[in-house]
């Protein structure tokens, strides 16, 4: 594997953008309606705990990505099999995210375009980023961070200035009790906070090992608060009912902006920033799959791998669901429980337990 | 090395093609589109179809430097369909250009639609379409046909729907009887428990035949459209109207009012005018012994702007008396509005929502029969009015 190192701030910006990713677009914990902020708060807290588990594993094997230490911990064959599972998982999620953004563009902007056309254009960018290597990607994310932060501040400012925020929409608190909060919690935890599992593949590239914990937690908390703020804003502007009914709540909320009949139709700003976020998120997932494959199959001509992987992600993004509603329902009802929870929570915890026991048994080994 | 250069060239070519060709996807030229500024939706019960009227801008007649041939500034036409989208599709039979709906400024609802059908699903198409905004004001025609209403040409704003929007804004700014109701307000009130939507009504005054021709712009005896009451809905259907000063209660309770004027008795026959320029209200709703109790606290500040009788306003007692009279008048206006809504059993003020926000348990028990409870509710209005100024003169005429 290439010997590249990235610094703490670059790492921070990738995590921040990755976490905002598609979560800011499709909205979080819609089921909990105006109480979704409570779920998100719990999500942030448990997301940090999960990240601590990932970093603990990382400090035990600082030079290795997840797919390698899976083999160290679980033995060669079983570990390899699990590694393959993770690679497939990353590619699947990459195509899910790609689908999200294809749908956004088709529904909101390019109504006569096909999913595939837009997918090809996005995928070309992603594949190019991977082709250029991890260092370039982290640097471009650093730049994107400033663009995104600027754009989001811009949106918040205009939403406040146009006087469309109605705080009474956030009441009553706990109208339907705790049940919707509990049932929306797993989705919120796994998406996007649990998706930090990808960084078990990328942490070895960090230049200073001791920074991993601090940078990661900071990025998770800040991006979580950002998501929280936007969820609150969306609900306060459109009301819980419209927010939970709309395909892209943030787009609906922004379309309400109208300052003096002059500042209006800012949807484009949202779509542009969403495409940037989508690019970062898809690239991270595909990168992990890419690194994992190289690691598992010991491939020499690494760059040739980009084409088939990119095409698989592209094609599966189009054929994975017949329409947007089916895609969203899969993402809310099936994927979190059958894929996210085992891959993001159960396996890492088991790994940590096994690794710790192994270390106890053989102190000299580690 | 050489291979590399070829590769760079090819990739540049591809990127160039992407940039240039992407402009060709889904292109529409400006001379092939018709910009729809207003849309009117009505319902024909005999045939069970929607009738949609479009107001399309006529660009050459609106150009700053006159290239027009003396035609009307807008073109109105209508089409029918079982759904609004179908009607829009059918409109292509009669109109030569492609309609662009993203610049709609006003949606008009027909009285038939509001009475016979309901508003419930009308706005779905506006929400679902990514090009159309939902922050568009809505009005309802009263005792008038939609097409006729849209046909009345206006002078100051060339485009009729824009002049209508201007009227609503003006009335809500200065008179305080109407407020701008947007599509999302209606959707919100329809879907929320404990509140019902309202829409300002418009009617025609004058001869609608001459109003629809260019003569209307040339003559001083104009036919025009005026705001006429606020429509009250119950479960999506129009059930009645709040008229005149009573409509102010709606704007006061929803805290949408900016300025308003108030007439107060000076002596037996004559009045004074008071300009209210700051007004805030706070409503509380509670259930006591299965009767709803609504308490509205209003704080208002105003200036005396016209005195039609001689009383020495430099005396504190006189000002205090005026304040008291103003408070009574405002209280009466608010109560009258609420009484109309209570008779129609429609909680247009959103008191149910206030109860939902403050007393969840009581709301859960009573939400099924809330409209009944509202109609029998006890209403307390407390007004606190302060007269801040009397204008450029201290005393009235010494007659």
Number of helices of chain B: 14
Most extensive interface, residues per chain? A-B, 25 and 19 residues
Beta-strand proportion of chain B = 25-35%
Could you give a short account of the major beta sheet of chain B? 9 strands, mixed
Average the pLDDT over all residues of chain B and give the rounded result: 86
Order of strands across the biggest sheet of chain A? Answer: 1-2
What form of chain B results from the Cα inertia axes?
globular
Question: What structural class is derived from the secondary structure elements of chain B?
Answer: alpha/beta
What's the CATH first level of chain A?
Answer: Mainly Alpha
| Series of secondary-structure elements of chain B, N-terminal to C-terminal | HEEEHEEHHEHHHEHHEEHEEEHHHHE
Q: How many separate domains of chain B?
A: 2
Helix content of chain B: 25-40%
Q: What is the terminal-to-terminal distance of chain A? A: 22 Å
Find the count of extended strands of chain B (DSSP E, 2+ residues). 13
Total count of strands of chain A: 2
What class would the helix/strand composition of chain A place it in? mainly alpha
Low confidence ranges of chain A = none
CATH architecture of chain A: Up-down Bundle
């Amino acid at each position: 594997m290439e010997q590249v190192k990235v610094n703490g701030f670059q790492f921070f910006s990738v995590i921040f953008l990755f976490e905002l990713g598609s979560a800011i677009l499709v909205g979080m914990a819609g089921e909990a309606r105006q109480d979704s902020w409570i779920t998100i708060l719990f999500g942030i807290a448990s997301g940090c705990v999960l990240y601590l588990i990932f970093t603990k594993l990382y400090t035990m094997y600082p030079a290795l990505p997840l797919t390698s230490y899976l083999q160290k911990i679980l033995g060669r064959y079983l570990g390899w099999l699990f590694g393959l599972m993770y690679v497939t998982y990353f590619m699947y999620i990459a195509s899910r995210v790609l689908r999200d953004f294809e749908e956004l563009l088709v529904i909101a902007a390019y109504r006569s375009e096909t999913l595939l056309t837009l997918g090809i254009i996005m995928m070309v960018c992603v594949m190019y980023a991977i082709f250029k290597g991890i260092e370039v990607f982290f640097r471009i994310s650093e730049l994107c961070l400033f663009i995104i932060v600027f754009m989001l501040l811009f949106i918040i400012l205009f939403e406040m200035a146009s006087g469309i925020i109605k705080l009474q929409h956030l009441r009553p608190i706990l109208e339907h009790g705790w049940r919707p909060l509990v049932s929306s919690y797993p989705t919120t935890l796994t998406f996007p906070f649990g998706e930090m599992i990808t960084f078990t593949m990328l942490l070895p590239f960090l230049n200073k090992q001791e920074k991993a914990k601090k940078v990661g937690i900071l990025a998770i908390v800040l991006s979580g608060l950002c998501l929280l703020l936007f969820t609150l804003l969306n609900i306060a502007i459109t009301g819980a009912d419209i927010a939970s009914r709309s395909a892209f709540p943030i787009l609906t909320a922004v379309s309400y902006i109208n300052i003096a009949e002059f500042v209006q139709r800012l949807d484009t700003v949202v779509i542009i920033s969403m495409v940037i976020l989508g690019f970062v998120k898809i690239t991270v997932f595909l990168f992990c799959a890419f690194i994992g494959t190289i690691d598992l199959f010991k491939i020499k001509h690494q760059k040739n791998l980009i084409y088939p992987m990119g095409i698989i992600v592209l094609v599966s993004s189009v054929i994975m669901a017949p329409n947007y509603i089916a895609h969203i329902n899969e993402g809310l009802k099936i994927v979190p429980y059958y894929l996210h929870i085992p891959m993001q929570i159960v396996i890492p915890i088991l790994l940590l337990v096994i690794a710790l026991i192994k270390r106890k048994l053989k102190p000299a080994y580690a | 090395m050489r291979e590399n250069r070829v590769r760079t060239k090819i990739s540049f070519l591809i990127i160039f093609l992407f940039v240039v060709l992407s402009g060709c996807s889904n292109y529409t030229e400006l001379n092939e589109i018709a910009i729809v500024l207003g849309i009117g939706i009505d319902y024909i019960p005999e045939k069970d179809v929607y009738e949609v009227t479009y107001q399309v801008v006529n660009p050459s007649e609106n150009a700053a430097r006159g290239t027009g041939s003396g035609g009307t500034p807008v073109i109105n036409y209508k089409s029918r369909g079982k759904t609004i989208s179908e009607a829009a599709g059918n409109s292509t039979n009669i109109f030569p250009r492609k309609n662009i709906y993203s610049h709609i400024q006003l949606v008009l609802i027909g009285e038939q639609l509001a009475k016979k059908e309901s508003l419930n699903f009308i706005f779905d198409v506006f929400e679902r379409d990514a090009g159309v905004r939902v922050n568009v004001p809505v009005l309802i025609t009263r005792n008038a046909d939609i097409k006729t209403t849209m046909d009345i040409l206006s002078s100051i704003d060339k485009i009729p729907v824009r002049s209508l929007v201007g009227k609503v804004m003006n009335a809500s700014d200065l008179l305080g009887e109407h407020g701008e109701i947007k599509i999302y307000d209606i959707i919100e009130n329809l879907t929320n428990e404990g509140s019902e939507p309202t829409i300002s009504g418009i009617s025609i005054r004058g001869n609608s035949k001459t109003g629809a021709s260019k003569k209307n712009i040339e003559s001083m005896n104009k036919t025009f459209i005026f705001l006429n009451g606020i429509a009250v809905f119950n479960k999506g259907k129009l059930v009645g109207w709040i008229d005149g000063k009573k409509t102010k209660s709606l704007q006061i309770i929803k805290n949408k009012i900016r300025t308003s004027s108030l007439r107060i008795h000076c002596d037996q026959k004559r009045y004074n005018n008071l300009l209210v320029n700051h007004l805030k209200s706070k409503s509380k709703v509670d259930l006591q012994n299965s009767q709803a109790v609504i308490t509205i606290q209003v704080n208002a500040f105003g200036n005396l702007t016209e005195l039609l009788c001689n009383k020495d306003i430099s005396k504190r007692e006189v000002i205090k008396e005026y304040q008291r009279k103003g408070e009574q008048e405002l209280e009466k206006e608010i109560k009258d509005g609420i009484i109309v809504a209570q008779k129609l059993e429609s909680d247009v003020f959103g008191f149910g929502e206030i109860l939902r926000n403050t007393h969840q348990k009581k709301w859960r028990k009573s939400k099924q029969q809330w409209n009944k409870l509202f109609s029998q509710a006890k209403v307390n209005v407390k007004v606190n009015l302060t007269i801040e100024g009397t204008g450029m003169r201290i005393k009235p005429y010494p007659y």
